[in-house]
Amino acid sequence: MDQDDFQITVEVSDPKVKDGMQKYTTYSVRGMDRSGQFDVPRRYNDFHLVRSVLISKWPGCYIPPLPPKKALGNLDQEFIDDRMKHLEDFVKKIAQTKYLWYSEEFQIFIKQNGDIEKLLQQVPKITNDEIINKYQETFADLSGKEINTLVVQKIQEFNNFLKKVTPMVENFKQIAKNISDARLNHQKQIQVLLNNFFPQYEQNIIQEYTDQKEKLIITNLQNDEIAKQALDAYVSNLFNYQSQLLERNEFKVLYEEIRLESKQLKAFRETFDQREKYELQKVQAEQKQKELQIQLQEVLAGKTSLMNIFNKKPKEEIIAKLQAQIEQCNKDIENIQFICDILTVLLGYIEIDRFKVEKQTVYYTMIKKIIQFEIELNQTSLDFWEKVSQNYQLL
Description:
By secondary structure, this protein is mainly alpha-helical. It has helices at 44-57, 77-95, 98-101, 104-111, 116-121, 128-138, 149-209, 217-223, 225-247, 250-300, 315-391; strands at residues 9-18, 24-33, 36-43.
């Protein structure tokens, strides 16, 4: 599985708004894989379609999410830039899973010119036999993995966990956004405090209370030429540095990560939906098999049923047809059971563990960035106030 060591590079960039009956945006998807370079224009709908095809062609495999559709305001530059970032996240995640990247459908998306929607719709639907053959080849290292109650319980518990925490993550997302906005607003207000509030308050209020001008702390920073020149440069550098820090506001990154996680949880639940779909198909096939067996028994016993009362074919022909249908049902049940087993192993031994490790890595990386961000931001404030304290005796 994923034995190819070629380092795939891919980016989504250069958004262009196109005119037509209805305006739309295209994005350049460019990079290189083992087949060579590529550079193709793609619309959001193209990304959405290829993801749908991947889900149908690779049941039980985690397919990363896309940003949601938006009917109004989808031509705003801020929205376009945000969507482009998440589209790039999508293709980079696919690039990490080589069997998805080099699949027929994704190679059409990444390489072909022309009507991509038409080309992807022409990709034939996959049969159960094809799924079995493809998965046996792709996931050969999973051969022999045991399916036991612990594996099944692991899948059920993680599915229940995702259902439980999805609304919680939505709430965390809003909290993170509020924190990000509050932090940005706080830093802006600190600058207002130093540049406007303190100087005006001192000149209009404090000056009346004291006859010692040296106690007009912030005003003196502005009036003392030597101090002003030195501190102006210092404060300028301070605020420039703070501005740089605020531009990479790690609390905004926190919000973006949780926002992405909300979509990832929903996308992962699709893997369980696929497994449940085949479980349901198995139940339906078994029910059909029972009905056919009952019909066969009735025909063999010479009974007349609603199903055969209008059938004028010879009894032998009816029996042969029912036997063939029962045999096909047996084969279908066997194939569906095999697919269910493959999906159980895939989820129980690969997808769940890989998803958990990825989320841990993202979280700890994010926490480290927030810690460093807070240290640097608070250090700039500490340096400033210590400078003020060193130059003036407050009282």
